[in-house]
UniProtKB/TrEMBL annotation:
This is Uncharacterized protein. InterPro entries: Glutathione-S-Trfase_C_sf, Glutathione_S-Trfase_N, GST_UstS-like_C, Thioredoxin-like_sf. It comes from the Eukaryota. Residues 109-183, 243-306 form the Glutathione S-transferase UstS-like C-terminal domain. Residues 32-94 form the GST N-terminal domain. The lineage of its organism: Eukaryota, Fungi, Dikarya, Basidiomycota, Agaricomycotina.
Length: 313
């Protein structure tokens, strides 16, 4: 078998990789599935030209323009060229079904979970952008700052200044993990903003441990998505109150994983979309603060997922 090629973004941290999206792909393959692979490093300003050259399909921005993001996976064995971390995980499960990350047809459920889990973080994203820039290499940092300043129409220095704004971001990060208010009391507030919301409750998923898990799905108006397909026009400080948090979801299972004893891509998302990223980009004292929440539960989850995926540090 020829090695798969994963396009990833380098940085100054140990091991180079820091992006939560490319790292989810690393954790599925090679780490979990153990398939041979090669990394091709691409700095931010080179992503679009290089992906165009390879013939990768771009994603569409709300204004109709095109964007290119990583991860992209090239499988020389099949000729497949796949973009988006979730789609790559689906591709790998279909092409290499041994050790599935969507066991028992859970792709649909995990897709919903991925959206909810990622969206909870969005209102605090500017704090993470400030920290991510600090660990990027020069060409990427400059390009990233320019893109994000344009996107938020603000200077980087105003993204998450120490004080009330930074405190608000911290409380959003923490809320993503804790039991929050149930969604119904928030419904009026949310719909009053003109956003289009759709609530989606999953119960009694027969035969699996998801039985009492409550998920909320957003039906998003396309023109409210940012460059990476994420909601940006929602009422920033209200959204996290709409969901239950990770501690509730993990508290509903009897095993170590979200699906009880069955490891899945949902656990990779839970650990990597937040915890891996926090640990890589935040300052040591900031990561220690998160690692101390809920009796160290999140640091343990990250370690468990990395061990399950046989990640080499
Ligand atoms: N939904 C995509 C999002 C990918 C994404 O946002 N990738 C970032 C790196 S973490 C990127 O490539 N950004 C390109 C840029 O900012 O130029 C996925 O899951 O793969």
């Amino acid at each position: 078998m020829l090695p798969l090629v994963l396009y990833d973004i380098p940085s100054n941290v140990k091991g180079g990789h820091y992006s939560p999206n490319t790292t989810k792909t690393r954790q599925v393959n090679p780490c979990y599935k153990g398939l041979p692979f090669e990394i091709d490093w691409v700095e931010h300003p080179d992503i679009a030209p290089r992906m165009k050259e390879f013939g990768v399909a771009p994603s569409k921005l709300p204004d109709g323009s095109e964007t290119y993001t990583l991860p992209v996976l090239h499988d020389p064995n099949t000729g497949a060229l796949v973009t988006d971390s979730f789609e790559i995980a689906v591709y790998l499960d279909n092409a290499y079904p041994e050790k599935p990350v969507f066991p028992k047809d859970t792709e649909g459920l995990i897709r919903v979970f991925a959206d909810v889990y990622t969206d909870q973080l969005m209102p605090a994203i500017k704090f993470l952008i400030v920290r991510a820039v600090e660990i990027m290499r020069e060409p990427s940092a400059q390009c990233y700052i320019t893109t994000k300043e344009k996107c938020f129409n603000q200077n980087l220095a105003e993204f998450s200044p120490e004080g009330p704004e930074r405190d608000k971001h911290w409380s959003i990060l923490e809320k993503g993990f804790v039991m929050t208010k149930r969604w119904s009391p928030c419904l009026d507030k949310v719909t009053a903003t003109g956003n289009c919301w759709h609530f989606f409750v999953i119960r009694e998923y027969v035969g699996l441990k998801w039985r009492s898990m409550l998920l909320v799905q957003l039906l998003r108006q396309r023109d409210q998505l940012d460059a990476f397909g994420r909601v940006q026009a929602y009422p920033q400080d209200k959204v996290p109150a709409v969901y239950d948090g990770a501690i509730v979801w993990y508290g509903k299972t009897n095993g170590k994983w979200l699906m009880g004893d069955t490891f899945s891509y949902a656990d990779i998302i839970a650990a990597t979309s937040r915890l891996f990223w926090f640990k890589k980009v935040l300052h040591d004292d900031e990561w220690k603060r998160i690692a101390a929440w809920h009796d160290g539960q999140w640091e343990r989850l990250l370690a468990d997922v990395e061990s399950e995926c046989k990640v080499v540090q």
